[in-house]
Amino acid sequence: MPVEITYLGRNCFRLKGRDGIVITDPCPPESGFTLGKQTAEVVTMSRRVDPGYSWSEGIGGNPVLLDAPGEYEIGGILVTGIATRAIDGSRNVVFISEIDGIRVGHLGLTATAAIDDLKDVDVLLLPVGGSNALAPNLAADLMTKIEPRIAIPMNYKAGGETLPLEPLESFLKETGNRPEPLPRISVSRSGLPSDLTVMILEPK
Question: Does the predicted model carry a pTM greater than 0.90?
């Protein structure tokens, strides 16, 4: 079964596979995005101390909340948390979720990344809007070093976003890509592109 990836705004994605749903960094209504009615088996929070990225009360289904480094297995979903640092020096946790054989890396608001730990991710979700995380040029550089099969930008100025982030265009200029935005994507091992491909998801 392919893993369905939907962008809910800011750093929040829904990763849906046969073994359940993972939601990353749920954002509150004050973010300018509306999550709607979401349920999940797992919620990862890269910045548990930042209410703009850890609105777990917005997610139903009594999910397991992960906000610290470590290795976890929840109902067939494997999650690895890796401690990194944010721009202000505070802790950020990079999460790698393995669902139905697809490894999805979510960088949170990292200012650094353990590239060796991320070398084998299939899908990379990376912040590209500067301000509280990677600037567009640094995000593009990190993306090419990690070399995932698919890279999906997050944490940029879109929709009703209330943070002073840069627009997606700044990152796309660095990469030379102009992909058409998609409402969601479905990813399977056999359907992964052979080369690094940037994909844009419209906030739901």
Answer: yes
